[in-house]
Predict the 3D structure of the following.
Amino acid sequence: MSKKKIYVGSIIAATAVLAVLTVFLSQNISTQKQETRTQATVSDREIKLSLFPKSQKGSVEERISVAAKIVGIGNRKIASVLLSIRFDSSHLKLQSIDPSKKADGMSFLKGTDSEKANNQGSFKILYGAESENSAPQGVVNLPSFSFEIIKEAKSDVSIVISESQVIFVDGVNGELKEDGHSAIIDSVPTGTHTPQEPTSVEISPTVVETISPTGEITPTVSE
């Protein structure tokens, strides 16, 4: 075999290897770009839900307020927010939701009746943007709702993420994330402790022998 044929064969082999590498790298770059676009899209739709204050102390018959906050990661405008809230109805009693309350360009649209909410220990509130131009974005503080403490206990009020929803003005659903989505309500008085059962002490009878007038020994039981 001549040197010329060997040289030509080497060039063909090198070209084939280079072509395979080019295809592999192109596919890899394309996949990375697609993953980057997907991550950017998800981040743009990400919404964090939280309740505040995170914890409160209160006493029986006192009213306490809890508010929800949503934080959008991207710059999308928010058209509506549906919140599903769960609470311990044996500890807390939801007061009527005030439909006149507004916050950050959003108005109350609909909510669960307070009597039904207290029977089932949960309720939903729907807020909507007043217009597309005034639709909020970024951080949105929603109106607070209040509870009356009906007994001494400790429980939490929480957002049910799976039953809540945020929709942007373009009709796309937000990707909801938990971010301190519960608030603790503590109405147990400081220093309260559970009374313990008194420890029983068995007293063994003491037998004392006494002598009767007849000379017989009679045992006497004393405690």
